[in-house]
Design brief:
single chain; elongated; two-stranded antiparallel ribbon; 19% helix; 6 helices
Length: 253
């Protein structure tokens, strides 16, 4: 796990520095987005003990106005409320198309060992469930985006992972996994993610049928405070390596 000063330094700066007056930036706006993400090892056969992930997310429409919830949250990311110097530091200066938005998400993750057993298996990933509620702030222009995400949640029985897996397996007539009585105990978790996305214009393409592709490169730093580092390390490895739903935003530059 990496802890970066960049995630937290904005909170330590004087408000006058972050909110210095700048002229209002007008930009074309986008509507709100509701999304659903499903990840399951039945799609790929095996995914290093990561067996299932479900995420419901809502992202507000974009705005360039200051006196909005999106504008206030976006200050630390270089939004329209930020000073010129802070916006330049965050890579958002000189853009006539600066937009900001915020969102909420509910995410459930499940991890199981490689073998079915009613007892803990040495040297294999334990049964783990995670349920988190996230708050996201996003500021973007035509070439890049800054995102700050706060994820608060719980592990153990409160994550409802056991019941969710049993319901899905019963629905699809699949064999049940019997070891959830040995899942890791319930603990509160907190994660803070700073992400920067870069637009890769060379990989974009628009087809005559109306279908088009976009390409983004991302840089992610994470600070966490929890009692289950193995869970989050596994989830983070999967998400960064395969574009997993835990870190996916309905993002388009």
């Amino acid at each position: 796990m990496k802890c970066t000063a960049l995630c937290m330094c904005a909170a330590l700066l004087p408000v006058s520095f972050l909110q210095a007056g700048t002229r209002q930036i007008e930009a074309p706006q986008e509507g709100s987005v509701i999304s659903f993400h499903l990840e399951n090892d039945m799609f790929v056969g095996d995914d290093d003990n990561y067996t299932n992930g479900v995420r419901f997310a809502w992202m507000s429409g974009t705005t360039s106005r200051r006196q909005t919830f999106s504008g206030m949250l976006g200050t630390v990311l270089g939004g329209t409320n930020a000073s010129d110097s802070w916006r330049r530091f965050m890579g958002m200066d000189g853009s006539p198309n600066l937009r900001q938005q915020w969102g909420l998400d509910l995410t459930q993750l499940m991890y199981t060992p490689e073998q079915k057993a009613t007892y803990p298996i040495y040297n294999q990933h334990p049964y783990v469930g995670s349920l988190t509620l996230g708050l996201t702030s996003l500021v973007k222009n035509e070439d890049r985006a800054n995102s700050l995400e706060l994820q608060l949640g719980t592990t153990g029985t409160n994550s409802l992972a056991k019941g969710s897996q049993h319901f899905i397996h019963k629905l699809w007539g699949m064999e049940q996994w019997p070891g959830w009585a040995n899942q890791l105990p319930g603990e509160m978790t907190a994660n803070l993610f700073f992400k920067r996305y870069y637009r890769l214009r060379g990989l974009e393409k628009r087809y005559g049928s109306g279908f088009e592709t976009d390409a983004l490169e991302s840089y992610i730093n994470q600070h966490d405070a929890n009692g289950c580092p193995g869970l989050l390390a596994c989830g983070r490895r999967h998400s960064e390596g395969a574009g997993g739903g835990r870190h996916v935003l309905p993002l388009r530059l």
